[in-house]
Amino acid sequence: MDLFDLFTILIVISASCAYLNTRFLKMPEAIGIMIIAVIFSILIIAMNYIQPVWFDQVRAAVAQIDFYKVLFNFMLSFLLFAAAFHTDASKLKVERRPIIVFAFIGVVLCTMLVGTMLYLVADWLGFKLPYTVCLLFGGLISPTDPIAVLGILARFDLPEQIKTNIVGESLFNDGMAVVVFATIYQLVGDGHSTLEPGPTFVFFLKEAGGGILLGAAIGYTMYRLLMKVNHYQTEVLLTIAGVMGGYLIARWVHVSGPLAMVIAGLLVGNRARKEVMSPVTEDYLDKFWELVDVILNALLFVLIGIELLIVHFEHSYWLMCLAAIVIVLASRFLAIYIPYLLAGNWLGLDNKAPIMLTWGGLRGGISVAMALSIDDSVVHKDIIVAITYAVVLFSVIGQGLTMERVIRRLYPEKE
C-alpha cells in the first residue's frame, strides 16, 4: 500500500470517527474519537479468529506507519504552533512561576520518581528491568500532552488559574520531556547503567536552551515579515513556512523543535496579532490554524487507537500495566505536591491545585510515539510499549471521562 492510499484511509477513518462521536457519543473529540478507534481495533483483532489472512494484511498496513516520524516530523510542529497561537500569553505570564516549576523541574522529578518506582515494582513482580530503561519510561510518560489537554479541558468550567496552569505546563513540558527522553535514550543506547551529570546537563542545556532561542528567532522573523504585507493568503502561507522551515532547522541543528514551535506560536499569536495583523488576516489565521488543529487532532487520536493492532501484549504484562498506571499517577502527584509544599506561597496556588493538576495532566500521542521510537535492540521494549499504551488509554479515556466529576467535587462553586 503506497503512502497516498494509507493517508486516504486514515483520513476516511478519522472523519468517520469524528462523525460518529459528534452524532452519537457527543464526547470531547479526543475521548470520543479514541474510544471509537479502539473499538474498531478490537473488532479487527477479533477478526483474526475468523479471517486471519485478512487480519494479517490489516496489521501489516498499520505496521507501515512510522508513528514516531508522522508525529514528531510532521504533526507535532503544526499542533504545538496552533495550540500556542491560540493561547493568551498574558495569562501565562501571570502564572509563569508554577508553569516554569512544573514544566521543567516537575518533569525531571516525575521522571526520576516513575523510573525508581517502576524499577522496584518490576523487580517485585519478577521483571528484571534495568534502571536506565525504567528511567526511559519515566521520561516518555512524564509529559502531559497539550493536544489531549486542550481538547478536553475546553469542555469544562475550571477556574481560570488552574486551566492556565494545566495548559501552560502542557505546552512546555512535552518539549522538555522530549529532551529528557533523548538524553536517557542516548545513555541506554551507549550501554550506560547510570546517569553522568556533566554530559547529561550539557546535552539537556543545548536541546532546551537552543530550542527556546530558535523559537524566539522564528517567531520574530515571522512577526517582521507579517508586518510588511497585508494579504491574508500570503500571511497564512508565511506561518506555514515558518512552522515547517523552523522545525526542519531545529532538527538540523539538534535543538528542541517542540519548544521552538511553542515559543514561535506564542510570539505570532500574541505580539503579531496585536500589532501587525489586520482584522481580516487575524480572522483567517485563527480559522486556518483552528482547522489544522481539529483535523490533525482527529488523525492523531485515530492513530493512537489503531496502534493497538501492533502493540504486543503478553498475559504477564497486565499486572505491570496496572502497576504503571498507579505509579504514573502517584509520581505526577508527588512531582506537583513537593514543589507546592516547598514553595506554595511563591507559586500562588490553592490547596486543591495539586489534585486537579494531577488528574488534569493527561498523557497522549507524544508518549506513545516516543515509546514506539525505541529501537528493537533495547531490552524489554515490548513491556515499555505495552505499559505506555495502557497508561495513555487510561489517561485519555479514564481521566478524561471523570474530569467533570473531579471538577465538581473540587470546585462546587463553579456549578
What does this structure look like?
It is a single chain. With 415 residues, the chain is mainly alpha-helical. The chain has 17 helices and no strands. Helix 2 (29-47) packs antiparallel against helix 17 (381-410), helix 4 packs antiparallel against helix 13 (279-306) and helix 11 (232-253) runs antiparallel to helix 12 (257-275). The longest helix is centred in the middle third of the chain and has 32 residues, at 197-228. The mean pLDDT is 90.
Please report the total strand number as a whole number.
Answer: 0
Radius of gyration: 21 Å
Average pLDDT, to the nearest integer?
90
Uncertain regions spanning at least 5 consecutive residues: none
The number of helical elements comes to: 17
The share of residues in helices is: over 70%
Q: N-to-C SSE series? A: HHHHHHHHHHHHHHHHH
Strand content: under 5%
User: What structural category characterises the helix and strand content?
Assistant: mainly alpha
What's the main sheet like?
none
Seen as an oligomer or otherwise, the chain set is single chain
Q: What's a concise summary of this model?
A:
With about 425 residues, this protein is mainly α. It has 17 helices and no strands.
Descriptors:
single chain; 415 residues; mainly alpha
Q: Could you give the topology of this structure?
A:
Elements: H1 3-25, H2 29-47, H3 52-63, H4 67-85, H5 89-94, H6 96-124, H7 131-141, H8 146-153, H9 160-189, H10 197-228, H11 232-253, H12 257-275, H13 279-306, H14 317-347, H15 353-359, H16 365-373, H17 381-410
